[in-house]
Predict the 3D structure of the following.
Amino acid sequence: MRSGNTTSVMTMALQQILQCPYQSVTKRIYLESKALELMALLISEELALGQSQINAYHLKPDDIERIHCAKDILLQNIDNPPSLIELARMVGLNDCTLKRGFRQVFHTTAFGYLHHQRLEKAGQLLAIGEMSIGEVARAVGFADRSYFAAAFRKQYGVNPSVYLRTHQQPMKNSA
């Protein structure tokens, strides 16, 4: 078995394990079910990886380097990324090679990766606690606060407001 990436669904299950609201027998059953869920997700990933390796499009080392460059451009422009065609032009690939290669290298689409990274950055910003939820949403490129809240809830298992309250780092009263 390989050591791979944790998907957003796996992250959500892990968060739910860490924030288990139950006690006693109910807690044990809940945690066992979440462990089974994680095992099912891992098996599913392995099967998908095996199938994708069978159908793998062979990338040249130069193409792989350009795909990593595309990833860096997305991260540098997280709040206002270029379109897929613009991104492909920026790194010197055609859009088809970029799409196929990004999926092969990172096991997700370019904008699936960007979406996940936006939510990761949002979690970090909320934990710092210096910005409102709306400011965080805008800072990571979400124009619609309700769409941000739904996407955040899907990745973290809680609303941004709950996350903000439970993850704030104490700092203001320490002076």
About this structure: The chain has three domains: 8-54, 61-107, 113-169. The first helix runs from residue 8 to 18. Residues 8-54 form one domain. The radius of gyration is 19 Å.
